[in-house]
Amino acid sequence: MENNEEAKKYLSEVDSWLEDVSYFLIDLNIHSEDKIHELINNTKNVIRQNSDEKPLDVSEIIAIQQTVQDIDHFVQRRIGENERQKATVPIGKHVLPKLPYSYDALQPYISEEIMRLHHDKHHQSYVDGLNKAEKMMKEAREKNNFDLIKHWEREAAFHGSGHYLHTIFWEIMNPKGGGQPHGELLRQIQKDFGSFDHFKRHFSEAAKKVEGVGWSILVWSPRSRHLEILQAERHQFLTQWDTIPLLVLDVWEHAYYLQYKNDRNKYVDNWWNIVYWPNVENRFYKAREMQWDAF
Ligand SMILES: [Fe+2]
């Protein structure tokens, strides 16, 4: 800084910038206990020591410049994280999620060969089909030509349900799975189904008796505020709208035929060994936060 006036101007700008950053960080949910606020306050204190009688020296001002850069980097990084958390999927840009474990991790209950085909081929085709349907519906809106809309709506429902249900399905299974859920999900299951065994029998029977291909699905209803078990034929039929799937079991033949042939019942019975309850509990807690007026 060439003279004290210029230094004073710079320091006052930094001071008000730091003030803005403090509020901005609180908006980002970074609260006063976070170390970054300590750094901001300390820097402000140093700046406010600057006076005509005792101006800050060059090395102190350079140190402040360095700190300003550090704070700026911190804020940029946190904005990036925040944006990623709020990320939305642009039209036609769905992607196949990675499996949260290796292809052979669910053996002996589900073979590696099934997992490779099921995830890499079948799930991928739902992702592709959903992307195509979304793009075609966008095109229909742009061209104001809805002649084929019924077809693309069907495609969006079929592939969309296929994509979303499989995404849940991979997550609610795990080699560390099996047993029973804990805590409030277990208590809710006992309340709504009588006992965990009653629930398990009901869910298994629903899976075994899906007509043709489909799913058995445990859902939470934010309106009636209880759990329900539903079947889905294919992916999208028999859906009870306005509910949130918690636990899903794929009983399409591609999910078991290579290993179990036509013995769907054995596949369903074995599947309970890999149900990953911590994930289901987490889905339940998040779903339960949503509450509609009860009708
Ligand atoms: Fe499937």
Low-confidence stretches: none
Integer tally of domains: 2
Helix count, DSSP H or I runs of 4 or more residues: 10
Strand content: 5-15%
Coarse morphology: elongated
Number of strands: 3
CATH homologous group name of the largest domain:
Iron/manganese superoxide dismutase, C-terminal domain
First-residue to last-residue Cα separation: 69 Å
> Cofactors and ligands present?
fe (ii) ion
The helix/strand class is: mainly alpha
Strand order of the largest sheet: 2-1-3
Q: How is the quaternary structure best described?
A: single chain
Q: How much is the average pLDDT?
A: 89
Describe the 3D structure.
It is built from 10 helices and 3 strands, in the order αααααααβββααα. With 295 residues, the protein is mainly alpha-helical. The chain folds into 2 domains: 4-85, no CATH class; 112-288, Iron/manganese superoxide dismutase, C-terminal domain (minor pseudopilin epsh fold, 3-Layer(bab) Sandwich). The protein has a 3-stranded antiparallel sheet. α1 (4-27) packs antiparallel against α2. The longest helix is centred in the middle third of the chain and has 32 residues, at 112-143. The N and C termini lie far apart (69 Å).
Tell me briefly what this model is.
With 295 residues, this protein is mainly alpha-helical. It has helices spanning 4-27, 35-48, 58-85, 112-143, 149-171, 183-193, 196-208, 257-260, 264-271, 277-288, and strands spanning 214-221, 226-233, 244-250.
Question: Secondary structure elements and their pairing?
Answer:
Layout lengths: L3 H24 L7 H14 L9 H28 L26 H32 L5 H23 L11 H11 L2 H13 L5 E8 L4 E8 L10 E7 L6 H4 L3 H8 L5 H12 L7
Helix pairs in contact: 1-2, 2-3, 4-5
Bound molecules: fe (ii) ion.
